[in-house]
UniProtKB/TrEMBL annotation, chain A:
Gene3D superfamilies: MetI-like. The keyword Transmembrane helix applies. CDD domains: TM_PBP2. It is a multi-pass membrane protein. The chain crosses the membrane at residues 51-76, 108-133, 145-165, 196-218, 238-258, 302-321. The keyword Transmembrane applies. PANTHER family: GLUCOSE IMPORT SYSTEM PERMEASE PROTEIN GLCT (PTHR43759:SF1), TREHALOSE TRANSPORT SYSTEM PERMEASE PROTEIN SUGA (PTHR43759). It is found in: Cell membrane. This is Sugar ABC transporter permease. It comes from Albidovulum sediminicola. Pfam families: BPD_transp_1. Keywords: Membrane, Transmembrane, Transmembrane helix, Transport. InterPro entries: MetI-like, MetI-like_sf, Sugar_ABC_transporter.
Automatic annotation (TrEMBL), chain B:
InterPro entries: Bact_solute-bd_prot1 (IPR050490), SBP (IPR006059), TAT_signal (IPR006311). The chain crosses the membrane at residues 21-38. Keywords: Membrane, Signal, Transmembrane, Transmembrane helix, Transport. This is ABC transporter substrate-binding protein. It comes from Albidovulum sediminicola. Belongs to the bacterial solute-binding protein 1 family. It comes from the Bacteria. Residues 484-508 are annotated as: Disordered.
Amino acid sequence: MTDVSPISANPREVAAQIFRARAHSAEVEARPQSEITNKPRSFNPPMPKRYYYYLMAPAIAILAFISLYPFFWLIVMSLQDVDIGGGEWVGFKNYVKLFSDGRFLDGWWLLAQYSVMCLGLQVGLGVLLAVVVNSSKYEKYLVTALLMPMMMAPAVAGLLWLFLYNGTFGWYHWILQSAGILDNASILASANTAMYAIVLVDVWQWTPLITIIALAGLKRVPRDQLEANMVDGASPLRNFFAITMPNLYPVLLIAVLLRFMDNFRFIDSVLVLTGGGPGSATKILPVYLFEVAFKFFKLGRGAAIALTLLIVTIILGKLLVRVFEKPQNEKG
Amino acid sequence: MFYRPKTAQATRISRRRFLELGGYGATMLGTGSLAVGLNSTIMSTPVQAASSDEAKWKQYAGSKLTFLSENTPPSFAIRDNIKAFYDLTGIEVEILTDDLPVVQQKCGIDLRSGKSDYTLQYVQDKPIGSPFADFYVDLSKMFGDETLPQDMEGYGDDAWFENFLSACGRFYSGEKIIALPYDAAIAVTFFRQDLFEKHTKDFEAEYGYRLEYNADSTWKNVLDIATFFKKLKEGGADVPYGYAQHQGSFAWTTQLDIQRMMFAHGRWIDFNIDDKIGSKEPGPTNWGDAQSVLMLEKFKALADVSHPDNLANGTLELNTVYQSGNIAMQVQYHEFAASVEDANTSVAAGGKTAYAPCPKGEADWILNGGPAVNGTNCGIGGIGINANAPEELQRAAYLFAIWSTSKNIQYDVLKGLGGTPTRKSVLEIPEVQAAQQRPSAMPNALTFDAVYNYGIKDPNFVLGPKIPEANEYHSIIASETQRMLSGDMSPEETAASLKSQLDDLNEA
């Protein structure tokens, strides 16, 4: 007999009902095997909790070794004047010095500018492109084309754009100059424009990621809601903001979080394009961190910068989640 | 190991199994390449002082060495000809090449972590020698070792061009030699004599002297020339810019660019230390004094009339600008002459370019009472041996170090890919002497007179500053200078900022 009791609105009760259905009742178990042949035998019978911990233990141990151990070592290093292979304990000196280090503070400000510009443009353009692609009959081809920039290693993308921006033979330089957007100096040669140049490269390479994710989100927007709203006389624009966007928030959250963290980590193209210059115009914090750790070999100071970067990333990540969760909660 | 239904119709490799096999393969390949590719190995046959030279060269036959070098012509040429070394010694040498910043990072990690994955290393004087000098073998102890073969010409200062051994071999001590001069990049002026001749009348009408360039030309003349060409260009004439600086993203060459001008005026240097040996405690910097502020003003004035891409042009890009005919003059490293003289890639080839020493200081711009000199700087790449390597491996590496810096090898490189010799004796070869005149089979030789007979000699040559914090020093100089050139700071503010940051860096 099938359990036809109505599904409760209470999640706990729903879970209990499902659980009850899985753990066959005594009545069901007592039936002859022939009567229940259509019901597949469960491959996942409930097991004691510790069983799952045992199963996860090897993975947890490996993860701890490759991730937690270096993390704690990073903390120790940040409290030392450290050389590779040894160091001298200096307490919080590395952290204290950071606050009087103009290059560190400038790095934060530049990173904030860079991230806001990249994320803003990528989300705006990415969603727009997703809508266009979603309504196109050439969707498959467009998606393939959009994937191409992402397939490129960031350092290679940096090199490609370095050539395109080149003031002597660069094609984009010629276009920008012909259009009157640039004066004689190339886009990378001016402290006023170099930041836009590196933002453009990031936007070119990673907007497709937002597009692909947003496209997946668009596929799950309920058509009945869209149609009902249209019947009520809503314009396509209102439909987009009232129905489509709220449904996109969960997937956009993932996309924005990914790109936000990437902007704090990926410096390949920036290093290739400008190396942080001219002056310090594009020396975003991760670039400065790379310099300190692997050019100046000041690993203690580098570890302190890395930890501050990590802490801020976590805090901002949490804030972003809240910002994106809010409209959903309101909707709910 | 993996579940397969008994009723399966065919044996198939599942996607998971396929990925697992791929993972195993990649791991094995990676481990294998690390084990076979990077590790140096040593095999030795004992020799005595009285053994033959052949036995001494062959004593480490069967060994394997790894040499990490910048991607410069000698390393490419030697790699192409590495069989000659193998035939001589039986030692296999793997030469890995990369851009200097990458070489610098890899060397630093190898040396400071106590490893010796790279037994032989390219010791570029300031970026690698200054911070890591303590991690290299003192070669002077091997010079007199009778159980090792030795170069007939020896390794003293007289065997190399003036100051070269000090540039890459001596750091913080006059006695220890950590590297032998392997290749060199010396600053020299490249200028378009065809354009100078063409516009000399107009120039003379405006400035009162002929548009010429020679060893007596000063930085003031360079400023005049750059101003003249820029004015012509802005007036609609089809002419290039007059001059361009190295202010791109590589901090070291950016620092060298401003150092030439600073040193030319009263032999101004950053710290009051022995310029040739350097110091681990350089003390307070001279940035911020009246001479440095004046020089920054002049450097900014020159930038304002130079090619507009100054702040994007590193050394290589700058040479491309010159090759493409977009500037009439550049101070460039003499190793680039070969590319400038290549008619396939350069509009400045075919006798259009002439070479002369770096500009001289302008007497009126000297406030510190020093002499006006043709401030010339360099990057002397040495070959050094990782002191973390076992002693036998160090001795085997020594064989390669002396072979790769020997006269015949340097001559072969010069003939082949356009090398830059470091041994004096190479210049005495008749073919090399002949090549210093056009038409030349070895275009780099066209610069030799300006470089070897003039630029590298005292009082023109500046080697330092050799300080342990050299790389952060380069970064600070580059960053602050570029900010000034961008208009973010005045010369006074720039000098003050440099003073503050450098004194903080050196805890002075």
